[in-house]
Amino acid sequence: MRDLVLLPGFMCDADLWRDMEDDLTRLGRVHHGNLYDDDSLDGMARRVLDAAPERFVLVGFSMGGFVARVLSLMAPERVAGVAFIASSARGYTEAEDTRKKATLTIRRVRTDNEPTLSGALHPDRERDPVLLERLRGMSRRLGKAVMARQVALVRRDGYAELERITCPALVVACRQDRLRRFEETECMAHHLPRARFEVIEDCGHMAPLEQPHTLAAILADWIDRERL
């Protein structure tokens, strides 16, 4: 049976994948990568590799996609295929990095009075109390220390690096994603030698929460077609 290694996004834990659990377990054994104890993409990738099976299909959501890129280049012989969901390979300028860290610190540092994360959702779902509470719940469980480490990540431009990932790749963009520009995700597919590009309609950034079964079906079809 194949193994799937799932890499979550910023301040997300295993609950991110909860609604996909049944679909994913039909595809193989599910492993959740630890992106919580390191403050660099290299460190995260090494920790995931240390705990991962010998060969696996890698699925990276958002920030997890940045780690998936690094990991796929670090140990190409172990990655059967890699999926990037609502992700990017664009680096941040120094000004953008400073501004993002300041904004995220203000938004996330108080777990007892967090503002809603409505911008992560489709405009029609931005006030959905269940989805918002799941986002807040993941943030509260992970806490300030994890937030500080993930905010500290340095993200350099990695589009050229994608050209060296030769295993089958899947790139999934979300049409109404307000956190990740559509063009950034689409550009990943242009740089990956063996990429399949899919778009989920009626979906904001949080595809595993908003369109779990659609996303699972895309993953299943890709895995089947590539015989991973």
Task: Write up this protein.
By secondary structure, this protein is of the alpha/beta class. The protein has a single domain, classed as 3-Layer(aba) Sandwich (Rossmann fold). It has 9 helices and 6 strands, in the order βαβαβαβαααβαβαα. The protein has a 6-stranded parallel β-sheet with strand order 2-1-3-4-5-6, sandwiched between helices. Helix 2 packs across helix 3 and helix 4 packs across helix 5. The longest helix is centred in the middle third of the chain and has 23 residues. The relative contact order is 0.18. About 4% of the residues have low confidence.
The CATH homologous superfamily corresponds to: Alpha/Beta hydrolase fold, catalytic domain
Class of secondary structure makeup: alpha/beta
Which stretches are low in confidence, meaning pLDDT under 50 for 5 or more residues running? 109-116
- Text of the CATH class: Alpha Beta
The count of strands amounts to: 6
Helix content: 40-55%
Widest β-sheet, arrangement of strands: 2-1-3-4-5-6
Total tally of structural domains: 1
Tell me the distance between the termini.
Answer: 10 Å
> How much beta, percentage-wise?
5-15%
What's the helix-strand series?
EHEHEHEHHHEHEHH
In angstroms, what is the radius of gyration?
16 Å
Q: What number is the mean pLDDT?
A: 92
User: Which CATH architecture?
Assistant: 3-Layer(aba) Sandwich
Briefly note the CATH topology name: Rossmann fold
